[in-house]
């Protein structure tokens, strides 16, 4: 009975994306000095030949060890041609919006794809994005700021940084060394302490690392980060846009983006999250930039989604509890929120907004 050939899985990249490869279930190990800047990847699409005779510099292959064959063969022996076939898992990694020309490319695409959005682009300056935090620090900060007003969150964050010896000292081992009692003394609740420790343990165990987060595709990243206690879907979407600068993120649960879509397309009702993908499909592969314009639209219209509520609740959304039901309840409580102003509570500087 012949051996079965394990099929290769291929993903088709969107417009300005790069195809890379990595082995299945390969999680890069944690590095002692996590990258502070997200690399800009070339637009070139790499293709692997069918026989895998060549390997790209950054690609990884797993080749099964051939079985030992006897020097003597019989007429009934059948060659196992598929035995040496390499297993390659493809991964799509998009260029961050901080790369030269990416925001301009996004605006050109959105102008051509959506005339209504084009008119909105004309009256607002383009967004700017720049790297200012490592992934672990950004995720830690989002947990600390949840459910707090900006001033209170900043006060606790400042004391937390002092405990760690500065922002450069916010590392998994340092966070795990802080006891719940120490964290309680600076105003961090017991629940948030458990969230911080859960994140740090996943880093320490190699489940997550800064390098893995930077290089992971969007779908895998969403799955991995929502495994962390205290980090919900809204938090991940904001992290992907404002910390990793991923170009094609659509926060379907964000009230500001949904309200902006309603205003832009003159819809009678607020679109449901389940409708957002279809309504915004024309924005691919730059839905992050289009979402930014939706927040601007809501802010300019003075729609009842302003400062007081999301200032407290968006910070709450920065690290929503793992319970999906509780996450929904907190979003319902934040019905009057300004998405732009709320980003301050996540530690995003104003010039990025």
Overall description:
- This protein has a domain of 218 residues: Hypothetical protein, domain 2 (Endonuclease III, domain 1), CATH 1.10.340.30.
- It contains 16 helices and 2 strands.
Radius of gyration in whole Å, from Cα? 23 Å
- Which range does the strand content fall in? under 5%
List unreliable stretches of 5+ residues.
2-36, 44-90, 304-353
Strand order of the largest sheet: 1-2
Query: Could you give the distance between the termini?
Result: 62 Å
| Helix content estimate | 40-55%
Number of DSSP helices? 16
At CATH level 2, the architecture of the domain at 135-352 is: Orthogonal Bundle
CATH class of the domain at 135-352: Mainly Alpha
Biased composition (Polar residues): 23-34, 50-62
Organism: Cephalotus follicularis
InterPro entries: Alkylbase_DNA_Glycosylase/TA, DNA_glycosylase, HhH-GPD_domain
Keywords: DNA damage, DNA repair
């Amino acid at each position: 009975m012949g051996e079965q050939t394990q099929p290769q899985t291929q993903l088709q990249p969107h417009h300005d994306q790069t195809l890379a490869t990595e082995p299945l279930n390969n999680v890069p190990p944690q590095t002692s000095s996590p990258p502070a800047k997200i690399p800009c990847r070339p637009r070139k699409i790499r293709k692997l030949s069918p026989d895998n005779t060549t390997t790209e510099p950054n690609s990884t292959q797993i080749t099964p060890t051939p079985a030992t064959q006897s020097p003597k063969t019989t007429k009934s022996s059948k060659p196992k041609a598929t035995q040496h076939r390499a297993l390659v898992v493809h991964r799509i990694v998009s260029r961050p919006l901080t790369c030269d020309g990416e925001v301009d490319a996004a605006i050109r695409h959105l102008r051509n794809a959506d005339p209504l959005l084009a008119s909105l682009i004309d009256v607002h300056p383009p967004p700017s994005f720049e790297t200012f935090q490592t992934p672990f620090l950004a995720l830690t900060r989002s947990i600390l700021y949840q459910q707090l007003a900006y001033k209170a969150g900043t006060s606790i964050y400042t004391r937390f940084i002092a405990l760690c010896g500065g922002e450069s000292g916010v590392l998994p081992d340092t966070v795990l060394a802080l006891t719940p009692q120490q964290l309680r003394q600076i105003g961090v609740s017991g629940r948030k302490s458990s969230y911080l420790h859960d994140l740090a343990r996943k880093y320490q165990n190699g489940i997550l690392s800064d390098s893995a987060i930077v290089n992971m595709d969007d779908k895998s990243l969403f799955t991995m980060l929502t495994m962390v206690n205290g980090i919900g879907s809204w938090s991940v979407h904001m992290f992907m846009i404002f910390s990793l600068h991923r170009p094609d993120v659509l926060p379907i649960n964000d009230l500001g983006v949904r309200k902006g879509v309603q205003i832009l397309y003159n819809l009678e009702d607020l679109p449901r999250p389940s409708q957002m993908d279809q309504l915004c499909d024309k924005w691919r592969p730059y839905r992050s930039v289009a979402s930014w314009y939706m927040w601007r639209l809501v802010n300019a219209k003075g729609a009842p989604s302003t400062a007081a509520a999301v200032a407290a609740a968006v910070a709450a959304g920065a690290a929503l509890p793992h319970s999906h039901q509780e996450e929904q309840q907190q979003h319902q409580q934040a019905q009057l929120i300004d998405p732009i102003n709320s980003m301050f509570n996540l530690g995003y500087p104003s010039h990025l907004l």
